[in-house]
Amino acid sequence: MEQLSAKELRDRIAAGQTSSVEATMAVFERIRQFEPTIGAYISTCEEKALEAAADVDKRIVAGEPVGQLAGVPVAVKDNMCTTFGATTCASRILENFHAPYNATVVDKLLAADAVIVGKANMDEFAMGSSTENSGLKQTVNPWDTSRVPGGSSGGAAAAVAGGLCFAALGSDTGGSIRQPASFCGVVGLKPTYGRVSRFGLVAYGSSLDQIGPITQTLADTALVLNVIAGHDPADSTSVNEAMAAACDYLEELEEPVEKLKIAIVPEYTAGADESVQRALSDAIEVYKKLGAEITEIDMPHLDYATAAYYVIATAEASSNLARYDGVHYGHRTQSPKDYVEVYSKSRAEAFGQEVKRRIMLGTYALSSGYYDAYYLKALKVRNLIRGDFTSAFEKYDCIIMPVAPTTAFKIGEKTDDPLQMYLSDIYTIGANLAGIPGISIPCGFDEDNLPVGLQILAPAFGEEKLLRIARMFEKETDWHKRTPPIV
Ligand code: GLN
What CA–CA distances, in Å, run from 117 to 17, 49, 403? Predict the structure, then answer.
């Protein structure tokens, strides 16, 4: 069952060849078997999922119309609000938080008749690149259980790779969909900023955050994007109706892009590991064979992306996380001696170390006297980076580069060195700063049999073409068909 893609499963359920209850039971069987090792979920909701599955089956048998994801078991990263279960953000501070409403994407999944099986583990408040910052549990990589699944959407990527769901939603502020997808050998798309509603997504860096699909195949990515994309009056940064409802991504997917012009940025990506470089050159050869023209370009400001990101993201985080004070939301300290202690102790007790580090960095960057020196300067750099992308896309359809400089690293390898951890995002952050879409697709394996991802970046609102370009590669290769040894 787990070998089927989400779309294949949906089609079989619709054709009466299998049922959603059968598929959902199979998923929970696998969860019982592999979850103790993988640790992908913070919570699961078996009873609710089986009820939803039975309802879809009943409606299919009755010949009633059903949604695009009818009967398909999916996972949702635990920073998206759900009225069922808790929404923890993998933080002790929200461990018992029950949201009063669903995130728009969750409502959209439900309206499409998807079956939500659980909430996936993540780095606390999506801050991290390995899921080791989760305050609640450890997730491992299904390809090698001594390694990290990537982060911050590590639980979602591990769940898809490990066959513990058929597709998942992650969020990407600086690479958190693409990097874990790359580490786990699955497909991960960060859509254009504004393509998908952020309403009900617990905010980290509001000008950077974007929700997107993590799936086994590109057809599944297109399918899930069809369901979640679109304008939402509840999110003022989601784009207007006409632009949002641009097309059916699935329908266009098989159309190859004629006279494809690809840019690469060799100087910027020279620091990646040899195995990553090798997979990238092989991918370039595949595109060349498909008739693409490859051009080396320079993007002079990308070198500053990581530095600018960690000022902007922490600044926004320091403001967004002010609401967890033991009064408005979250854990409250026992017997404080005054109201100041309600705030300070509640936060001190329940936030993890990385979250505290970032709140301090962000508060510092925004403080009077330093605002101009750090925050304003970072915003200017962001603008220059955006300019680099704009000029590249005037001439080229897309840019390809690695997703991360390495494949999945060992658990514990980078936890003592936050700067090393931050550098895992060196190639993904640019897309968030510029607001453009980026995808990671499987493009090879290293000498340890760990997956390598290929990143493709396209102009804002260019998802349709981006998916078609990625699909050209997927059609030519079978990296996406391999499954981890654990399953
Ligand atoms: N790893 C990056 C960070 O720690 C990106 C996280 C994300 O995309 N949510 O901020």
Answer: 21, 6, 28
Gap from CA of 355 to ligand 1 centroid (Å): 11
How many beta carbons lie within 10 A of that of residue 208, not counting itself?
23
**Distance between CA atoms of 419 and 305, rounded to whole angstroms?**
14
Place of tokens 């690695």: 402
* Residue 329, pLDDT score: 87
Instruction: Copy the structure tokens of residue 454.
Output: 């290929």
Q: Is 104 in the pocket of ligand 1 (CB under 6 A)?
A: no
Which residue numbers are catalytic?
A: 77, 152, 176
Distance CA 171, CA 65 (A): 30
- Per CATH, which fold does 6-262+394-481 belong to? Amidase signature (AS) enzymes (3.90.1300)
Q: Whose alpha carbon is nearest atom 10 of ligand 1?
A: 127
Pairing label, strands 261-264, 293-296: parallel
Q: Give CA–CA dist 274/241, Å, rounded.
A: 44
Q: Which residues contact 76 (CB under 8 A, 6 or more apart)?
A: 82, 105, 106, 109, 116, 118, 119, 120, 156, 168, 169
> Angle 197-322-433 (CA atoms, 0-180°, nearest 5)?
45
Q: Could you state, in order of their start, the residue ranges of all structural domains in the chain? A: 6-262+394-481
Residue 222 beta carbon below 6 angstroms from any ligand 1 atom: no
Radius of gyration of the chain (CA): 21
Q: What is the DSSP string of 74-108?
A: EEEETTB--SSS---TT-GGGTT---SS--HHHHH
Across the chain, mean pLDDT equals 96
The rounded distance, in Å, linking the Cα atoms of 41 and 39 is 6
Residue 321 burial (CB count, 10 A): 27
Amino acid occupying residue 248: D
Q: Measuring CA to CA, which residue among 43, 52, 41, 46 is closest to residue 13?
A: 52
DSSP 126: G
CA distance to 275, 283, 450, per residue, from 447 (Å): 7, 17, 7
Q: What are the φ and ψ backbone dihedral angles of 112, each rounded to 5 degrees?
A: -85, 5
Percent of residues, the chain, with pLDDT higher than 70? 98
Q: How far is the CA of 388 from the centre of ligand 1 (A)?
A: 22
Q: Which of 179-188, 240-249, 320-329 has the highest mean pLDDT?
A: 179-188
Give the pLDDT score at 486: 78
Half-sphere exposure of 270 (CA within 13 A, CB side): 6
